[in-house]
From TrEMBL:
PROSITE patterns assigned to the protein according to its UniProt record, in alphabetical order: HTH_LUXR_2 (PS50043), RESPONSE_REGULATORY (PS50110)
PANTHER family: TRANSCRIPTIONAL REGULATORY PROTEIN DESR, TWO-COMPONENT RESPONSE REGULATOR
InterPro entries: CheY-like_superfamily, Sig_transdc_resp-reg_C-effctor, Sig_transdc_resp-reg_receiver, Tscrpt_reg_LuxR_C, WalR-like
Upper lineage: Bacteria, Pseudomonadati, Pseudomonadota, Alphaproteobacteria, Rhodospirillales
Coiled-coil region: none
Keywords: DNA-binding
Entries under Gene3D superfamilies matching the protein: 3.40.50.2300
Name by which UniProt lists this protein: DNA-binding response regulator
GO molecular function terms attached to this record: DNA binding
Keyword Glycoprotein included in the entry's annotation: no
GO BP terms: phosphorelay signal transduction system; regulation of DNA-templated transcription
Ranges of residues in domain HTH luxR-type: 141-206
Every Response regulatory domain range: 5-118
């Protein structure tokens, strides 16, 4: 089993120890732990994670996630939230987090989600993603497409469902390389940096997950 160096950031010592115990016999065994984000940032050079950073402190202070992303550029960033917060989800998505999970998620669902994230998938709860869309009063997809081709619109729609490049390629009957080319072009056209920001842009402009038939295994509520 290939291991992933994992950094855990959590102020609640009991929860931190419990999570360490849960992950001990998995590829995500915790090697470094911190009680505050400040500690994780101060020790980033010596604790640089090549695998994953799991933080239960996202949103406590403005810019925390951005600083973690800069301090651990090669790691997957996973947020463990205590409650359902649209603001925290928005911050996580725009800061480039790779996953957003609830702290009451089942052990099995947590491990499965971490495995998907290490494969390059994005794991976010669809119920909160839908709430983000509801906050936008008058989406106008026709006037906001910025010259996107029909194929680019199809790919953008698939991003809303959380589909990977492989799944998009299968759905559209094209190669993954072609998907990557279209994705690079549409990111430039809508002026965003990554697929997560593109999905947010799409939701803000009238695209909804319900409009597409693409698989949604990596963008769902982990409530088991």
């Amino acid at each position: 089993m290939t291991s992933s160096r994992t950094v855990l950031i959590e102020s609640n010592q009991l929860f931190r120890q419990g999570l360490k115990h849960l992950l001990a016999d998995t590829r995500f065994a915790v090697e470094v732990e911190f009680g505050t984000t400040a500690q994780a940032l101060a020790n980033a050079e010596t604790a640089a994670a090549s695998g994953m950073v799991i933080t239960g402190l996202a949103g406590k202070e403005p810019g925390d996630l951005d600083m973690l992303r800069n301090a651990y550029p090669n790691a997957r960033i996973v947020v463990l939230a205590s409650d359902l917060s649209v603001d925290t989800l928005r911050d996580a998505m725009t800061s480039g987090a790779d996953g957003f999970l609830m702290k009451d998620v089942s052990p099995e669902a947590l491990i499965q989600s971490l495995q998907l994230i290490m494969l390059g998938e994005k794991v976010f709860p669809t119920n909160l993603a839908a709430m983000l869309l509801d906050l936008n009063s008058t989406p106008s997809p026709v006037n906001s497409l910025r010259g996107l081709s029909p194929r680019e619109q199809e790919i953008l729609q698939a991003l809303v469902t959380g589909a990977s490049n492989k799944l998009i390629a299968i759905k559209l009957g094209i190669t993954e390389a072609t998907v990557k080319v279209h994705l690079k072009t549409l990111l430039r056209k809508i002026d965003v940096n990554n697929r997560t920001q593109a999905a947010i842009w799409a939701m803000n402009n009238g695209f909804t997950a319900g409009d597409a038939a693409a698989p949604t295994r990596n963008l769902h509520a982990m409530s088991a």
